[in-house]
Amino acid sequence: MEQLKIGIVTQVRVTSTRLPAKVMLTVAGRTYLEHHLARLARTDLPVIVATTTNHQDDLVVQVCEDHGIPVFRGSEDDVLSRFAGAAREHDLDALVRVTSDCPLIDPEIVAAGVDRWRAENDPDLYISNCLERTYPRGMDFEIFSAARLYDAEARATLKADREHVTSYLHQNRSGEMRLLNLPWTGGGAQYRLTLDTADDWKLLDALIEDFDAPRLGCAELVAILDAHPELAALNAHIEQKKLGE
Length: 245
Prior knowledge:
The chain has one domain (6-232): Spore Coat Polysaccharide Biosynthesis Protein SpsA, Chain A, CATH 3.90.550.10. The protein is 38% helix and 16% strand. It contains 10 helices and 9 strands. It has a 7-stranded mixed beta sheet, sandwiched between helices. The protein is globular, with a radius of gyration of 17 Å.
């Protein structure tokens, strides 16, 4: 059987509300976007950046061009159509969806998820590691077939479904999806390794500058935060934005 083409599509825009242009902030000589893309590259899967047609996101395109990463540009608000466009342009059979505010996403965890999705051999399967929160925030991924994405693109009418890409799938609005959560027993579900606010930025800066976090996997990062509660406290008070906010 022919091997399915699975690609990672990561969504990026610099007009983020809580921390504007957050992925363009730099630490250890690289932008946070570059740290994120370098982690994804270690999966050995194709990586595609889905950004907007806003002129502000020319910055994103420049970073990607510098590193030979393909970019698809689409609607800022209809992110579902942006992902579908990226999948079509690159002839993907299935996608891994991640977001660019995860500079320390663990490539081994993502690759293992893809292996599981392939092994299940079910085009109606949606796999994620965050249907239930067992990982730190910042490790999240979702995997689904392009066929299911195109179906969502054609049928989703709720504004939240257009904006959040996968809610039509993981809320099973079609009634045809099979959902599978891949849990983690390594702890750390309370931690935030995501870049959404200035306090998240403080923690990530400290991990990257003082602990060489780009070399570390999820378990090692959790161990550092377990051993250094003063670091975990930097962003422990942040509330994650809810779907639709």
